[in-house]
Sequence to fold (214 residues):
Amino acid sequence: MKIFIDTANIERIEEVNSWGILDGVTTNPSLIAKEGTDLRTCVKRISEIVDGPISAEAMSMDAEGMVKEGRELASIHGNINVKLPMCLESLKATKVLSSEGIDVNMTLIFSPQQALLAAKAGARYVSPFVGRLDDIGQTGTDTLAQIVNVFYNYDFGTEIIAASIRHPVHVLEAAEFGCDIATIPYDVLVKMVSHPKTDEGIAKFLADYNKSKN
Ligand code: E4P
Fold:
């Protein structure tokens, strides 16, 4: 499973990139606003750090505007894909952008039917939001599993990004289902690194090593 980081924070992207496990980056308007930057500057800087797909969200609400914005965003760097929110207008825009070789990440996916339509329109990625389904009392990973199962039956060439990840168990389940990608917030990535038994083991080995030196 490919691992993307879900952030617009440059220091965190640099840090996680140095771990050697990073395959790409997703941003969204809320993440960009949190960093007090603008989309263009932010994704340009990210493209200088990470050699992999970077999602940048278009904000137009009509297909024509989405296509125009999509072309502009894609022209910033070859690794940039255009995030569009799932709706009728974005399906139309996806058809146009994908026919021009511009990758679309269809975002705000909450059902297998939405994912199916996005794939049919030519989206390179679909992003089911797991945590936001949990927030309203549904089981987000059930929807994720359904999408993985549906896509397994066909040959869409669309990759599934498990998004709105809130904790390491979401990541585990995405990997168990065979999801293509998980886009993970920094704090969840940090939690995935450690285990109390690892810390305990390191402390014991260090203590024994220091004893044996004397
Ligand atoms: C996906 O690309 C989104 O940026 C993101 O995963 C949204 O997550 P949230 O529900 O934690 O805001």
Observations:
- The first strand starts at residue 2 and ends at 6.
